[in-house]
Amino acid sequence: MQYLVARMQLRPCTGLQEAVMQVLLQLLPLVLSAAAAILIAWRATPPVVKARLAALQSGIARARKPIMLVTDFATAHHLLVRGSSAGSFSNRPPSMAPSAVLSGRRYHNINSAPYGQLWRALRSNLTSGVLHPTRLRHYAAARRRALHRLAADLREQQLADDGVEALAAESIRSAVFGLVSTMCFGDGGVDAAVVRAMADVQTELVLSLSAVRTFAFVPFLAVSKLVYRGRWNKLAAIRRKQEELYLPLIDGCRRRRGRDDDDSDGTPPSYVRTLLDLRVPVELDGDHDSSGGEQTQQRRLEDGELVGLCSEFLGSGTESVSAALQWIMANLIKRPDMQDAVRREIDAAVDADAEEVGEEVLGKLDLLNAVILEALRLHPTIKFGFREVMQEDQVVHDGHRIPVGTKMVFPLEALARDKTAWDEPDEFMPERFHGCCAGGESTKKLLSVAAEMKMLPFGGGRRMCPAIGVSLLHIGYFMANLVREFEWREAEGGEHAGVQLHPDATVEMFNFMERPLRARLVPLRRPGGGYVKSQVGRDEALDCQTGH
Ligand code: HEM
Asked: Any idea which positions bind heme (predicted)?
């Protein structure tokens, strides 16, 4: 032994070295048999357990990776839109989507799905099956009904109790929620009480997003569930309520599926119906798109996935659009000259006796669209975009490769207030978009403004929001008609009366207004059409409070 070591090292061993070698030799059989046992056990381990262990390992690795905040617009745009030189740079860090978190990332929606075949199938189903302009046309009647309910609701609040504050934001949100739930579950099938219950659960979910964050990025979910048992139970209860409400409606769509043909009788194609018809690829390999080739094995979506996808559709479809509408009306209250100008533009384009501002007119309203774009620039309703650098991406910034696993955060509001891109970036100045939006081109225009590197309210690149067209349609349609129906004014009296354009820092993800918006609404038109005699009938003022 002494000889051997001495020969290898070409010098004699000390007593200590020899003792260490003796111990190692004693342990060697033990180490070898342990290694053999681990190898045998690993071979016998079911693939699902192996995948869990790999996910755990990558979770731990991810948790240790750096976070980069991108605050300069040109860099943000370059990274999001051009991506990387090799991969797609289209993955998000493990998402905060509640359905994904609560299911231990078994159920994904579009937002949470890793970039790959499942994500592609889900996203393309949404864009072609529901959000395509030819499909959106089917919902015109539902939009009209939602608008009429909203206008009637605002008027009723005036009649019900003069002087009592009315929650206009609540009215806006329920109108948008009602419309989106019709798109989700189909026309006429959903009871009004169920719609209200679903809207309430959605509110609970939004207010619990900070609790979701507690569990979103932890490597040891089981331990965190024990430590934060209260929070976990609350989230699980919300999810149970969603299941109780959505699953009977999903089953109803399933039963009707055999009977209806959406396209033949003009019935709107519900989102759930498209999901029931959808086949998604079986994920063969881990987290992301590693197959690179054709997937042949396909499966239907499970009930748990359907619940998560409905929750995503209802949440994204409602919160962003109704928040945008509230920011717009609040800004128009602060700029009465702009509000009048928008109204004059509408009046010039729409017959005085017309019951409503029709959707076909929206594209011609340059100033109206300029107001929408400016409000989305100043108050993008989603606060952040997120990406994660994957192994296959080669994201280079300033000549340096950004390490794999880096989480990149894009603060959308700060980016759109970049002083190098905009004059007076903190001011509400729709004039800056004046002349850009006539001819029904606002969607395209928004994208080209983004291409000029100035704003990203819908994010950018392959994971950009897939619903820009429907969002601009819903916002434009409701806004045009709300401006035509009422004069929106600052509420009087009390220190909490005035409009404050501050965001609510306590809400995660969505950009809501901090203080419920109070407004005096002066009805300008008779229900069913025609202007009231005095458009400035101050007696008809309605104190209105909006909140979320
Ligand atoms: C004012 C309205 C809206 C705004 C400002 C908005 C904004 C955004 C933003 C910033 C993102 C992240 C993009 C990125 O990471 O690059 C996003 C993603 C998404 N939005 Fe919207 N959104 C709006 C309305 C909607 C509506 C109405 C729906 C559905 C009906 C929707 C569905 C989605 C989905 C599914 C994603 C995930 C896309 C993916 O990962 O591929 N959004 N949205």
From this structure: 465
